[in-house]
Inverse folding.
């Protein structure tokens, strides 16, 4: 490959890396916006912890665990290529990765993805999780569980070669399952084990709305995430191939728009209210839905997938509330609900659609569900039995910011007296 | 064209598409920052509606309406290439658009532009417009009016071939008229038909300042918009041509800086106050001013155009107040006032300057003024006579957030008690 | 060089230019977040002033002063290539700058850097500096001092050729010294001359924490700055060379992560508190630390440099407090403390490490320290003796926003009454 094309490809992948990094600001804004003011610093601290520690863990071992160089189809549980990163011979030449990017870019792009899984959990457990427990969970989940699940598909493991009939391998373009559901399953387990926030559910089973503290931050978070998804999906082409990257941005944006409008519309007819939160979560639902097949769908199919994703959001949020699973930011509905939908949609729409493919997609969803749920359950139950995973009732009521950080998020904020 | 150059061009255009998308966060922050806390969710809802619905409308029909493939010079009012988007043969090869980008990129870049026109209106009508009316207006204006006006110039219509003497065609590089004035005329008409907010003007004709609720958001909005303009103007080169793109970024940034400093300075001498809002609106004025000729101007000319743009802002804001046209965010001054100025400046400065060109620019301004004003007037008067365009006085006073969305933008915000 | 590679290089440099511009939003958020609500508009006004006036000054004379075309090694104090910018012959062809970018891109990228130095000072002097004095200081410092210091290294001046033994020239890849310490020295001098804020230190010498008004803005600022550093360091490769740019992003991000975690950890053991501010300043410390040698270090070395950078932050903040040097945002610790460390680290780690290189690095640090401290001291003492550099005690207590701008940053902010 000529130098110019290699350089252009690598620019695109570095740009996408930056955009995926920027998603962490999106997640931070989204999560603090939808939660109470008294827990803001705690959530920001968690998010900053995830980015920094997540990247360092991926550097120490995660990258080597996720791309171990499989010799045959196995579960990758015992594969580990060693600590620390070092570029292989030729890792900076077009010979590496078909000239799509350098090995350094590869590491950083994948490292930015790794932290995302834990961030998804962070939102769901907000406002009552014990910080040390969450840190230990994050270290194990980002450092070990995510890379193993990732290796099954993107590291060339058994999911990538899982074939059935005419279907040749599980397909998950940018991670509806491999990233979003990996986070979503852990979020579900964690929310179940943690229990609901004080005051969320009444004795008669009805739920109270616990409103957040800043809709501007929530909205900004979603717009930043949408932009970040240009990199999340666009970069998953793994080169700057003009047709595939531009198609991916079109399907991604149309699914986002369709998901938002459909969630907003359904919520309007269901609750007679123009609900900004539902509008925004619908956008995220559209984005997660298209992620598994963003390069496989036509614009029309992307719109349909997004519309269904938006509808799923509304009903999943409602269902979780009925099950008394208290997810302050809607992370389970968004990342797990539409993550599953998006993965299955690859078997229904687009270039790979077939009943065989649908079954393979279902098998992939199931394999990740089993591995991640069990892993998360084991880690969290051990933490619960030892150091505990939930703060005291008193701390929860007074706010985690003061108790864990000795600080208020807006310590000098005053109202205009003039 | 070789693959590498095509790939590089397409990367630039996708990057610019992302930046123009990001402008919607800039507009959102700007608008909520300059308006009252009680209407924040309403404005955010409007903006999210515009992005999502605007993009879907452009997908359904707008793109086909704007680029209909003119056979001869006509008004394009009856041209329509059909519903839905589908890439033409060769749309993913360098043969399309001189290898500047793929057809998918083309659609998405133009789609991001389309929503901008309605967003401009959104700011001007904030704090009293009835939501359903604004939605219907947006759908018609973004779905039909903007694409028709756009087709006249960028779709190869009569403005693009309007010649007079030595001048060969109306020139509007990135849309001082075709985007900003299209939004600005509608904003002017809407503000006129809506009337001023309760409490804005006293019986003696004097105006009260109705201050916004967050200058940090306002400032962030302007900086994000400036960054977004790298894509808005830089992408309007329609390739990554090194000379033109880099010149465009230089003229854009210098005009922004010059506009800000000139507005700040004039406001200081006029009002004896270091007015941050005027500083920021001056930056936007500089940006809109240079948009019509960003690729035609030298840096020196860009600075002059920006300085004049900044001066126009100060006097236009003041003039609108005298006319009792209540524009909460200064959108008319920025997008219409300096939009006209920037368009005319192409006839005065830069490579195309000539008296003939000036007249052609004037004709283009006039044609768009007529079409957009009349269209906006008709749509809005019909809406006013039917469902109404303004909320009740009670709703306006108590805030649109509670009445239309049943929610407060900062429901859990508390002051530090420690 | 072929057109495609030139185009790709120029795209990367334009992208990096945009990212460095975006850092100004990061600085703005960081600074207002860490300071009191009553001075918010004042800080935003300062930042907007720096961006706009800084860019115009660089256009008027700074760029020509910084890259004067040295004929021999001199101090560049009397070199000046004239007012205004105009591209040289061939400035838009691959013949310029080895095809890394066009001359227009060169100007804009360097112009975005120029404003950064003054922004660093802005944070340190916040909440009590007199606005006119700061403006005059900024104009001189950005317009003259920064370009002269910059010319010594990046303009081909005496630092770039300063050799000793085996060391061939001072090395400062992206400006740990040439940008960050240039700002940091002025910040130190300014803080010393200004004195501490009212209420910061007690009579017994102990310090009071003066908390800021928005940790979400602070956090967002740091994440935006980290993203911006992709451009700051990545663009300092001065082309899109795949290996060097991607290595630079990896070392930059790993140092940021390591700096954050080390500062957070040290602060936890020292103060028994999970301190978000220290976590965030540690990230910035890691970023500044790696800036001088981001292209010379292995990932392992980047992590070590970042860890030490994070530790320096904790102790530098504490030391400054003991010296009663009141820096509201920690700018001196971050930009000067780790700026020096990062510069010296080039002599200790990476491809250039040698004792001779260490001495050359030390000499460079000393030369810039001397020139910038003396320049800042002279400018500020003259300002102090004439118009004064500090606002009145009354103005400081009541807030600069009302006194200098007649406005409150959140004039219409209300608490939820429902």
């Amino acid at each position: 490959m000529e130098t110019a094309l290699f350089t252009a490809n690598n620019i695109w992948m570095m740009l996408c890396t930056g955009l995926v990094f920027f998603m962490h600001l999106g997640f931070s804004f989204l999560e603090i916006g939808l939660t109470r003011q008294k827990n803001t610093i705690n959530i920001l601290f968690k998010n900053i912890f995830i980015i920094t520690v997540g990247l360092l863990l991926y550097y120490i071992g995660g990258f080597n665990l996720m791309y171990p160089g499989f010799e045959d189809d196995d579960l990758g549980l015992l594969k580990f290529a060693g600590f620390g990163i070092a570029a292989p011979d030729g890792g900076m030449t077009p010979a590496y990765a078909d000239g799509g990017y350098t090995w350094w870019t590869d590491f950083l792009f994948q490292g930015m993805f790794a932290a995302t899984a834990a961030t998804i959990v962070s939102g769901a457990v907000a406002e009552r999780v014990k910080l040390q427990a969450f840190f230990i969970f994050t270290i194990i989940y980002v450092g070990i569980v995510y890379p193993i699940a990732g290796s099954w598909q993107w590291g060339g493991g058994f999911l990538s070669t899982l074939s059935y009939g005419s279907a040749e391998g599980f397909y998950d373009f940018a991670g509806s399952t491999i990233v979003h559901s990996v986070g979503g399953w852990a979020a579900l387990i964690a929310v179940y084990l943690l229990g609901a926030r004080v005051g969320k559910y009444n004795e008669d089973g009805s739920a109270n709305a616990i409103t957040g503290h800043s809709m501007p931050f929530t909205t900004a978070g979603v717009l930043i995430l949408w932009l970040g998804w240009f990199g999340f999906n666009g970069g998953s082409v793994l080169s700057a191939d003009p047709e595939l990257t531009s198609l991916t941005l079109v399907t991604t944006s149309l699914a986002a728009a369709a998901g938002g409008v459909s969630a907003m519309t359904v919520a309007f007819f269901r609750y007679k209210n123009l609900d900004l939160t539902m509008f925004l979560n619908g956008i995220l639902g559209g984005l997660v839905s298209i992620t598994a097949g963003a390069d496989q769908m036509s614009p029309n199919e992307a719109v349909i997938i997004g519309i269904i994703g938006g509808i799923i959001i509304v009903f999943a949020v409602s269902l979780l509330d009925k099950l008394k699973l208290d997810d302050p930011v809607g992370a389970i509905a968004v990342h797990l609900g539409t993550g599953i939908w998006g993965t299955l949609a690859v078997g229904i729409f687009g270039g790979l659609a077939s009943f065989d493919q649908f079954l393979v997609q279902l098998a992939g969803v199931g394999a990740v569900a089993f591995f991640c749920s069990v892993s998360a359950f084991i880690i969290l139950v051990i933490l619960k039995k030892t150091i505990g995973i939930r703060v005291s009732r008193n701390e929860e009521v007074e706010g985690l910011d003061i108790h864990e950080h000795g600080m208020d998020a807006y310590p000098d904020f005053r109202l205009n007296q003039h």
Notes: The beta strands of chain A are 163-164, 167-168. The CA atoms of residues 234 and 245 of chain A lie 5 Å apart. Chain A touches chain B through 64 residues (CB under 8 Å). Residues 3-405 of chain A form a domain with the Ammonium transporter fold fold (CATH 1.10.3430.10).
